[in-house]
Amino acid sequence: MSGFTNTLLSGDGPRSRVLTALLAVIVGVLALAPFLFDGAQAINTAAKICVFIVLAASYDLLLGYTGIVSFAHTMFFGIGAYGVGLAFHFWGPTWTAGLAGLGIALTAGLILALAIGFVSLRVKAIFYAMITLAVASAFAILAGQLSDFTGGEDGRSFRVPELLRPTTMLFQMPLTGMSVTGRIATYYLIALAAAAIFLGALRIVNSPFGRVLQAIRENEFRAGALGFDVVAYRTIGNCLAAAMAVLAGALYALWLRYVGPDTTLSFAIMLDILLMVVIGGMGTLYGSVIGATIFILAQSYLQKLMVIASSAFKGVPLLPDIFHPDRWLLWLGVLFVLSVYFFPTGLVGTLRARAALQKD
Amino acid sequence: MTPVLETRDLTIRFGGHVAVDGVSCAFNKGTLTAIVGPNGAGKTTYFNLISGQLPASAGTVQLDGVDISRDTPAARARRGIGRAFQITSLFSNLTALENVRLAVQARRRAAMPAGPRRTLSEIVTRWDSDPSLQARARDYLADVNLVAKADTPVAALPHGDKRKLEVALMMALEPHVFMFDEPTAGMSIDEVPVVLDLIHKLKARGNATILLVEHKMDVVRSLADRIIVLHNGRLAADGLPAVVIASPVVQEAYLGTRSRAGRKGGAHA
Ligand SMILES: Nc1ncnc2c1ncn2[C@@H]1O[C@H](COP(=O)(O)OP(=O)(O)O)[C@@H](O)[C@H]1O
Ligand SMILES: [Mg+2]
């Protein structure tokens, strides 16, 4: 690795040629997405991948690096999305409103993360998981009930600052004549923010603090015997992960120009990010890039593939039913089981282990 | 002179079983005290009460005259109580160097004033950005002959290396009180001298307070300034090595140990 890349990645590179190539393709395609593909679905998918890379990475910080199982992660995602969304909705589509909303969301998220941490990080992992589940459910119900404020189940649509609107024409590309709109500007804002946050997370896990988190995950007893305050470290780790999830939520709201329970708070999303982290490889951060990309692609295009497959098998007994688009979740489940079976340490873990073997 | 470490009537009960029973004992700076007694006598439990892994049912632990009985294990470690565990307790998926480096880091951290600045710099700097800490960690690895395995994950190390690493972690903490719990148990014959040398050197420094649980009587004889005997959780004898080894209580508690110790001692000499 060159010195610059090494610094950028905090000395923690992919450590596998296949993984490096995969990441290069993903980053390359995401960087050029608006110019590579036509149509709304492709750029929507690309933006969603960027957001979920951040969200999954923040969850990996918790699950993979700290060994904390939390079901409240979508709550922080939701806080970020609602913070920015409601600020734009009530205070108007200005940058100040957006930043103020983000600031409030970050503060609220940190306070909640601290509170949950102080109350419950001392207890056994299973109780912690249950407490987070309860808090997250309560929060989702609250968001639904306070409909005057949050828009309830319908959520809130809002306008974004002028620069970021789809109708805003920024300039035309010199060669292709393609017009660069506010939508593309928004995409790049999200992609760059996602990259910066991801690199920040990579620094955190490779800091002295990050090594202590890993030590606590490996052997809480010995970490304590060395003089590290386990609860304090876990609480700070929890806060950092929560702040990252808040940022991911803010980016997502910015892209959707809408915020509602289904897009941010639902338990289904919680399961999605869990799957992303596990498929990609826990405790690697790069796993969240791979996991989020595979998962979102599958989510967006599996149904389409299945429509094709289903009609191709028309007349054959049973097969059209099995490939009916409504069964896509079943197939996602099959994909998940297969990936865990063949790659128990996730794709990244497996690729790294193979690379390490070849080196010896 | 206040003793560095003192236990007063230290007691722990597990249900009806009293594993450590009213042990009062003081340990002075610069001394090495060997703690002997048959398996199940309560030696490890006594250590757990001192370093805080178990809460005492009664009695106190004093460090430099301060009652630390209510402190967590982490707080006691930061105050300078170091422990090498009988049952190896390491960070398996981290490398040998990372393991020792964590102890070096813990030591440096305990010496810095707490606060947001310390926390922030801990989060945003790179783990390997301070060469002096890395070098220190390497030195401690070198002391137990493990430099060649610096980058090996601990899970892949043979048992003897893990035992040595266990000791290296405590050494890297640079505590005031060193508690070795059967440091050479499970090591092959050629590995034992590395650890014994280390304890010898530590003792020669003259400012360390060392507690050593050890079964090999020749080792005890050559290292200890004093021996205490635990038997059924009680302090059964306390005194100079020659006196304690010859005492009837040791003959009783260590049934058959005398001849074994004599043989080994002879071979050693
Ligand atoms: N956590 C515990 N719960 C119940 N009994 C324990 C516990 N720890 C130790 N003991 C008991 O205390 C006694 C002393 O054990 P230990 O201190 O390990 O002995 P030694 O180190 O001298 O061999 C043993 O009978 C052991 O079974
Ligand atoms: Mg023992």
Any overview of this molecule?
The complex is a heterodimer of chains A (360) and B (269). Chain A has helices at 3-8, 17-36, 40-66, 73-91, 95-120, 125-145, 147-150, 182-205, 208-218, 220-225, 230-256, 261-264, 267-280, 286-312, 319-322, 328-342, 346-359; strands at 156-157, 169-172, 179-181, 258-259. With 360 residues, chain A is mainly alpha-helical. In chain A, helix 8 packs antiparallel against helix 11, helix 9 packs across helix 11 (230-256) and helix 13 crosses helix 14 (286-312). The longest helix of chain A has 27 residues, at 40-66. Chain B has 269 residues and is an alpha/beta fold. Chain B folds into 2 domains: 1-80 and 175-183 and 206-269, Rossmann fold (3-Layer(aba) Sandwich); 86-173, Rossmann fold (3-Layer(aba) Sandwich). In chain B, helix 3 (96-111) packs across helix 5 (131-143) and helix 5 crosses helix 6 (159-173). Classes of the chains: A mainly alpha (360), B alpha/beta (269). Residues 14, 19, 37, 39-45 of chain B line the site of adenosine-5'-diphosphate. Magnesium ion binds at residues 43-44, 86, 181 of chain B.
How would you sum up this structure in a few lines?
The complex is a heterodimer of chains A (360) and B (269). Chain A has 360 residues and is mainly alpha-helical.
Principal-axes shape call of chain A: globular
CATH topology of chain A: ABC transporter involved in vitamin B12 uptake, BtuC
User: What is the CATH C-level name of the largest domain in chain B?
Assistant: Alpha Beta
The backbone outline of chain B, from C-alpha atoms, is globular
Q: What is the chains' assembly state?
A: heterodimer
Query: How many domains make up the coordinates of chain B?
Result: 2
The top-level CATH class of chain A is Mainly Alpha
Percentage of residues assigned to helices of chain B: 40-55%
